[in-house]
What we know:
Blueprint: H1 4-31, H2 41-70, H3 74-97, H4 103-129
Helix pairs in contact: 1-2, 1-3, 2-3, 2-4, 3-4
Amino acid sequence: xxxxxxxxxxxxxxxxxxxxxxxxxxxxxxxxxxxxxxxxxxxxxxxxxxxxxxxxxxxxxxxxxxxxxxxxxxxxxxxxxxxxxxxxxxxxxxxxxxxxxxxxxxxxxxxxxxxxxxxxxxxxxxxxxxx
Length: 131
């Protein structure tokens, strides 16, 4: 089974994850902190952005892969992947740059939740109705 669209978005998201990892490592080195955040707000926000990314991306990618495997609707798979990618990038940026609520965090979470919900509903519809 080949899932080229999901592979494309998984690869871009993988690059984003590496970038977030490098940011966390850089902040840890700069503040000389091995574990935790050492009370440094910037490190705390970067670590949370990294952790949040790793919490939402895998399950959503799995659902997108299932959707791609079960349907030939390339536009829908691209829509899900694009929403997830931009949602995670916006959220990570907002969390890394702002201590409180920001439009980037809000929009990023909305896009991520939409990708998750649409992939879940799409998969359940395909399974139930065999469309």
